[in-house]
Structure formats: structure tokens, C-alpha cells
Design goal:
321 residues; mainly alpha; 14 helices; 55% helix
């Protein structure tokens, strides 16, 4: 059998698994991306199988549109359908490059038109009130939780980037932290005075807790942020705090300070970008700080009110007055 025949004879399921392997081992995709793509592509493969289509070279753009239609029938939103299509498109790009298909059928399918929602961003005053008021009555570990809020808002990092931080990623001499973003891309983010102060206070308590340890002896872990009871250390784990736990911590403290219930760690990232822009920061500098590949992504993370835009126009345009 020729190499071309071997490629075209592979089943849809086999090629889905092969692509997931490429994402994991060659492209360094995050665990979140892998879970999402695995879910979307396996679901599409299962749908194709029920319709008697088990070869990628037989998939037409009409099949993909029909599959998206079934997602709507299940009650999924346009955003969910768009995520599924994004995974299928990425898979087809790889299929075309690898020679499994001659044409990229997914490129002929339009992305569902999504409503444009600006994220609700707390004001600077609201964020200062939340971060400055972490107390024993609203936090299980106040020093740690204060440091978490300072890092999310003061550095603008993602939840997954926060929980992935290790002690060695804090570069005190350079006043910066090394952040591993999406696709294993690394960037340095400035560590502000408030965040540095909160980190030092937390690290002192972290060292004390690890000295006691789960076995009444000194324990160690590279993880910067650890869970309250150091779960996992006794069995060789790192006791690393999870993204889900960070979400609960942020929501609880924010709601106690009067913010809406839909606050989550990414809200603080939105606030980071928006407040920098409001205070005059350059959009491309914000792009670098947030670790966005495209400037258009940064623009979606920031928002200006009509009054602010009018003020900028009145102050800067020569024909405004």
C-alpha cells in the first residue's frame, strides 16, 4: 500500500486521536485546550460514525454544517457551536498539511455570528476595596488569598497561569514573574510593590505550614500556591492549588465586597487591561502584558465608556474645539 493510500485509509477516530497526540506532545497545548478539543472532536467523530461516514476524505462542508445543526437542536448556544467549529477547523488544517485530505472542508463553513458582549469590569475603586479588605472572616487563608488577588489583578495573569507558577518563577531581583501562557509561550510580567508585599507575607506563612508538614516533618513543593491542608504532599504530590479552588476564593471574597455573583478570576484580568487603558497605557504594551498573540484579542479585553472616548477626543483632536 502506498503512503498516500495509507493516509486516506485511516479512520476518522484514528486521525482524531493522532491529532490530539500532536497537540499534547508537539504543540504543548494546555490541559484545558486538550480537554476541549478531545470533547469536541470525539463528539464529531461519533456523529459521523452514526451517519456512516468513517473516512476523512469523504467529509464535506455540508456534513459539518449538519453537525452544527444538531448542536443547536440539543439546545447548545452559538458560542458552543463556534467552539466546536474551531476545533474541527484546527483538525482539518492539520489533516490538509499531513496529506490526509486534499481540501479543507471546514474552511467553507462560516462561524456562527455571536453577540458582542463587553465584559462587566469592576471600577478601580471596587477592585481596590476587594483586594485591600481580605480578612479572616472571608478567607480560609487570608495571606494566601490576598496574594492570589494581588497577582490576578496586579499582574493580569490567567487563572491557569497563576496555579502553574513555581517558587523559581518569582524573579525578585528583576521585580518580575515568569509566566507560562497558552501553547507553552513564556513571558515576563512586572511584579508590582503591592503584589510583592502580599507574596512575601504569604511565603512566610507557607514556609511555616510546610515545616509542620503532613507527616510532622519538613516538606517541600515547587508550587507557589498550595492548598490549605497541603493535600497530596504525603503521597508525593505537590499540593498545588487548583484553578477551581482559585475561582471559589475569588468569587467568595468579591461577593462579600458587593460585586456581582458572576465575578471570576478572568474578571480581574479584564479589569487589569481595562484599568491600564483608562490610565493611558498603550494598547500594544497591554497586549504584551496579557500575553495576547493578536491585538484584536486585547481590544476585546478592554472597554472604554462613551464619556471617556469623548473626553479623549475633545482633548486630543485638533478639530474637536
Amino acid at each position: 500500500m502506498s503512503s498516500t493510500a495509507a493516509r486516506t485509509s485511516s479512520s476518522v477516530g484514528e486521525l482524531v486521536e493522532a491529532y490530539l497526540g500532536v497537540l499534547a506532545h508537539e504543540r504543548g497545548a494546555s490541559a484545558h485546550t486538550l480537554r476541549a478539543y478531545r470533547r469536541e472532536l470525539r463528539s464529531f467523530a461519533a456523529w459521523l460514525a452514526t451517519h456512516g461516514n468513517r473516512r476523512v476524505n469523504r467529509i464535506e462542508h455540508t456534513h459539518i454544517r449538519a453537525y452544527l445543526g444538531t448542536l443547536y437542536e440539543r439546545g447548545l448556544s452559538k458560542a458552543s457551536a463556534a467552539r466546536a467549529l474551531a476545533a474541527i477547523r484546527s483538525w482539518f488544517k492539520w489533516l490538509a498539511r499531513a496529506g490526509h485530505v486534499e481540501q479543507n472542508a471546514a474552511s467553507l463553513v462560516a462561524t456562527p455570528r455571536l453577540p458582542k458582549h463587553l465584559p462587566r469590569v469592576p471600577s478601580i475603586e471596587q477592585m481596590n476595596r476587594v483586594v485591600d479588605s481580605v480578612r479572616d472572616d472571608d478567607a480560609s487563608w487570608p495571606a494566601r488569598d490576598r496574594a492570589i488577588l494581588e497577582m490576578l489583578y496586579g499582574c493580569g495573569i490567567r487563572n491557569a497561569e497563576l496555579t502553574a507558577l513555581n517558587l523559581d518563577d518569582i524573579h525578585w531581583a528583576n521585580e518580575a514573574i515568569l509566566v507560562r501562557g497558552k501553547g507553552q509561550k513564556q513571558r515576563y510580567v512586572p511584579l508590582g510593590d503591592a503584589a510583592a508585599e502580599a507574596l512575601r507575607a504569604y511565603l512566610a506563612e507557607r514556609a511555616t505550614r510546610l515545616t509542620a508538614g503532613p507527616r510532622e516533618k519538613s516538606a517541600s513543593t515547587p508550587a507557589l500556591f498550595v492548598n490549605l491542608r497541603l493535600r497530596g504532599l504525603a503521597t508525593g504530590g505537590q499540593a498545588r492549588l487548583t484553578t477551581r479552588s482559585v475561582g471559589r476564593i475569588v468569587k467568595r471574597i468579591a461577593m462579600l465586597r458587593g460585586l456581582p455573583s458572576d465575578v471570576h478570576p478572568h474578571t480581574l484580568r479584564h479589569a487589569f487591561g481595562t484599568h491600564l487603558l483608562e490610565e493611558g497605557a498603550d494598547l500594544r504594551a497591554i497586549q504584551e502584558l496579557l500575553g495576547h498573540e493578536r491585538l484584536s484579542t486585547t481590544q476585546r479585553y478592554t472597554q472604554l465608556t462613551t464619556a471617556q472616548l469623548t473626553e479623549v477626543y475633545d482633548r486630543t483632536h485638533p478639530r474637536a474645539k
